[in-house]
Design brief:
Shape: elongated
Helix content: 40-55%
Structural class: alpha/beta
Number of strands: 12
Order of helices and strands: HEEEHEHHEHEHEHEEEHEHHEH
Length: 237
């Protein structure tokens, strides 16, 4: 199935994978965890160190799918974009189809990420995953986010709620005022996701499209990927 989308280089040993990365440029990588002495992590480490955050990375592992600590660790180290377990191959192919269609990375696709420093672990985890979908402008201050929407065009915005004096809603309000209701907006907040009244208010006032809480980052990335693939961003100002 992968060969219908890409020119595929298949390796059975991590050493061959490391060599392949050294000799070729890749748009995506699908890896198993492997076993001691033949680890998929070695391939991913070489891929990220030599080719940066551009290539899309998917890990197929039922073990990792059930181990949040392992997933968070690998996302931070290797920028894993999608996790799938046995039986979720259709999800994997759907994500890779978006990559093959050009929804993964483009100079014309920008994503705005508002993540205050007090939530640094979230930023460190989600930023490399978003970078596989387009150029990410990360801002810590709402004022910088407001300035960014005046200087660039964005296909999507991912925002934390922030705190008084540094609110994500200020960024989203400027985002909607500049680009209208078409671009995708998501809020990552366990507090908001658990409050139906907040969801209704934020959706009504700011046209927020998607709410996620901690542990639902895969769903967030999938939603942003779909939105970016469907969005035809305007030319840079």
């Amino acid at each position: 199935e992968l060969r219908k989308l890409f020119s595929v280089v298949h390796v059975e040993t991590a050493a061959d994978g490391v060599q392949a990365v050294a000799e070729n440029s890749f748009g995506a990588c699908v890896a198993k965890l492997g076993t001691r002495g033949n680890l998929g992590c070695d391939v991913l480490e070489m891929l990220r160190s030599s080719q940066g955050s551009g290539p899309f990375v998917a890990v197929h592992s039922s073990t990792a799918a059930g181990n949040e600590k392992l997933r968070l660790s690998m996302e931070a180290k290797y920028g894993v974009n999608v996790w799938v377990s046995h039986g979720q191959e259709a999800k994997l192919l759907e994500a890779l189809s978006l990559v093959a269609e050009g929804g993964k990375s483009s100079d014309g696709v920008r994503i705005l990420l508002f993540g205050p420093r007090n939530d640094a672990p979230f930023v460190d985890m989600i930023r490399p995953r978003l970078e596989s979908l387009g150029k990410v402008d990360w801002v810590e201050e709402a004022a910088d986010g407001v300035r960014a929407v005046r200087e660039h065009n964005y296909a999507a915005c991912v925002s934390k709620l922030g705190v008084e004096g540094n609110l994500g809603t200020d960024v989203i309000a400027a985002f909607r005022g500049e680009f209208g209701t078409s671009p995708f907006v998501a809020i990552h907040s366990s507090t908001a996701a658990a409050r139906l009244d907040w969801i209704e208010e934020l959706a009504s006032e700011f046209n927020v499209n998607f709410f996620v809480k901690h542990g639902e980052e895969d769903e967030l990335i999938a939603a942003v990927a779909q939105a970016v693939a469907q969005n035809d961003p305007r030319l840079e100002k």
